[in-house]
Amino acid sequence: MKSTVNNPCFVCGSASSQLLFGREYSAHYYPGTFAIRKCDKCGLLFNSPRLSDEELFNLYDTNYYFFQRHDVDEFQRITDVFLRTMSFIQNGVIEKSVAEIGSAKGYLLALLKHLGWSVQGIEISSDASEYAISKFGVPTFTGTIKDYSKSNHKDMFSVVLAIDVIEHVPNPIDFLHSVDKILRNTGLLIIDTPNGSAHNIKLLGSNWKGFNPFHIYFFSSHILQALLINMGYSIENSFSYGNRPKYHLTYAEECKKVFNSLLPRLGVLEQSKLVYRGVTNVTKYRKKDVESLIRNASEIIRKNSTYLDTDDARDELAKEIRGDNIVIIARKTA
Ligand SMILES: [Zn+2]
Predict the structure, then answer these.
(1) How far apart are the CA of 322 and the centre of ligand 1, in A?
(2) 44 φ/ψ angles, rounded to the nearest 5 degrees
């Protein structure tokens, strides 16, 4: 049985919206149709009706994709994450202390620790936070940012990172208030999230990669900026990435797509995944230990300056912030 909640738009309060897309996610055990609506007044995209908080939690528990990824792949990914977030602010902070909300298995914080930052992870999955602690020595609190801000931890941070997080949060205003409690005055908040104004939504409809059953809100840059300005932040930087109007899949991505679409039809997806993981573990993971992965990542970011120097930042959709994802760097002023 699916129980749902159907709230008015939390940004502008309007109860009037249009259905844009409906899509099935039976492979994720999502019940019924996942619906994306657009607010008539402010244009926010959101999932409604949506699962109750409890059902959402169960959905993560059953099949959250994020923690299935490999260390090697994740260390490659975080060099890009670093270039579009931390690389902008390295010289603009007084003290190198950073908290990451949704720190997952601790990859980015492991790199930042290596670069001399004092780090704190905040992560709802206990499996992931234990991994971060044992594998990388990254201190990680298990729970939400709300739990953390109410706990006995008295640390305040110069930088708070929320990468691929705010789109998952049922109450973004509560979330931002909790963030505010752990961010120092003049500190920086960096949000990275799928772009509700992405050009590719028009092109790909419900097949756009930002839509999945775990995402509730799809912000455009101006909506998120307005929320932050209201809370006493000034916007230092905002841009989009994934700025190519169409997808150009690499050969590896094409193979993966075929693999993922063919095998479920043959009824052997789970077995095949285990084999696939076993193979990639042997061929990729054993070659490099964690220390060398971190060293490699820090070499890559040392060679590059910021995201704005990459080809993607010069691509067509960058100018109007219409790429697949947005980044906002905001400074706390109040
Ligand atoms: Zn609205």
Answers:
(1) 19
(2) -60, 135
**pTM > 0.70:** yes
pLDDT tens-digit map of 47-70: 999 998 888 888 877 666 555 677
Report how far ligand 1's centroid is from the alpha carbon of 301 (Å): 38
DSSP 85: T
The ranges assigned to domains in the chain are 4-63, 69-208+219-248+295-332, 253-288
d(CA 148, CA 131): 19
CATH topology for 4-63 is N-terminal domain of TfIIb (2.20.25)
Q: From ligand 1's centre to the CA of 132, what distance in Å?
A: 38
What pLDDT is stored for residue 75 in this prediction? 86
- pLDDT tens track for 320-334: 999 999 999 999 996
Measured in Å, residue 150 CA sits from the centre of ligand 1 at: 29
Phi and psi based region of residue 220 (left: phi greater than 0; alpha: psi -120 to 50; beta: remaining): beta
How many angstroms is it from 46 CA to the middle of ligand 1?
Answer: 10
The string of pLDDT tens digits covering residues 218-258 is 999 999 999 999 999 999 999 999 998 765 555 556 556 65
Residue 23 structure tokens: 């899509």
The number of angstroms, rounded, from the C-alpha of 227 to the middle of its chain's C-alpha atoms is 18
Helix (H), strand (E), coil (C) string for 103-148: CCCCHHHHHHHHCCCEEEEEECCHHHHHHHHHHHCCCEEECCHHHH
Query: 69-208+219-248+295-332, what's its fold?
Result: Rossmann fold (3.40.50)
Distance from Cα 15 to the centre of ligand 1, integer Å: 8
Cα 17 to ligand 1 centroid, rounded to whole Å: 8
Quick one: pLDDT band at residue 277, thresholds 50, 70, 90? very low
Is there a cis peptide before residue 213, judged by omega within 30 degrees of 0? no
For residue 33, what are its two tokens? Answer: 């149709």
